[in-house]
Amino acid sequence: MATKPYVIALEEHYQDAEVKALSGGPGAGRDIVERLDDLGALRLREMDEAGIDLQVLSHSIPGLQAVDAETGPPLARRVNDRLHEAVQRHPDRFAAFAVLPTADPRAAADELERAVTKLGFKGAMVNGMTGGVFHDDRRFWPIWERAARLGVPIYIHPALPHKAVIDVYYKDYAEAHPGLLRAAWGFTVETATQGLRFVLSGIFDAHPDLKIILGHMGEGLPFLLWRISHGLRGSMKEKTFRDIFCEHFWITTSGFFSDQALLCCMSEMGIDRILFSVDYPFAENPPGTEWLKTLPLGPEDTEKLCHGNARRLLKL
Prior knowledge:
The protein is 48% helix and 10% strand. The protein is globular. The chain is of the alpha/beta class and 316 residues long. The protein is built from 14 helices and 8 strands. α3 (41-50) packs parallel to α13 (285-292) and α5 packs parallel to α6. The chain has helices at residues 17-23, 30-36, 41-50, 72-89, 105-117, 141-150, 163-174, 186-201, 203-206, 221-231, 241-248, 259-269, 285-292, 299-314; strands spanning 8-14, 54-59, 94-96, 124-127, 154-157, 212-214, 249-252, 274-275. α4 (72-89) links the parallel β2 (54-59) and β3.
């Protein structure tokens, strides 16, 4: 029998009780909330049952992107310290992405450095926008400069679309189809727009070592790389959109266990840029790891997807 590959999953969520009290949490059902609240026996048992060896933990939406500039920095320190304690209880099973108080970008940059250099975190996750502003805005560049200098990635994760977008695009159907605002469409559009704006902003020219992760098979951008690059060919002459995206972005399989989508992303970006993730507990572990057993890949590429690419990117 073939040996089971070591499996690292790196969009795996939890929630801190203090942040939950402030934000109300992600608005999920009881079963999901129970799993978000757990960093012990329940989570470990479900990892074992599915064959997941290591989770990189990250805070659920809305995280600290919904917290003001005064409250955010001391709260981020407390949250990251508590997450560090949870990782230390099971260091062979957990690693972590930091929360960042993005409403105060310089404090966020300092907290990223503390989390990486003092707590051993592997980068950070940022959810949606901050105060209705996309994170390519220059006010946030101190965060990206620090991430590039530290050599750690930032995971750009979805949150609910801007209220104005909901009102114009989705309100006619959101009540009957609440998933439309989330995984079914709204999350994807908002996060793909954030990725697009990062490329256009010039941030990668200023900080060429910056690394960005997008979940959910790149939020649709790999499928659209040719068309976006073609559409921007008149204004992007030195490097195409594809060139920049494939140099600075990694993507994950979180909540997206499709052979066809994987093969498309591999054709556009290469297997070295794709990382296995589940999106626990919003997606269940077993469908993800069962999918790994039937991948249309050879052993070397399967190993890269399951753990090799994550080890290299996160320095695990």
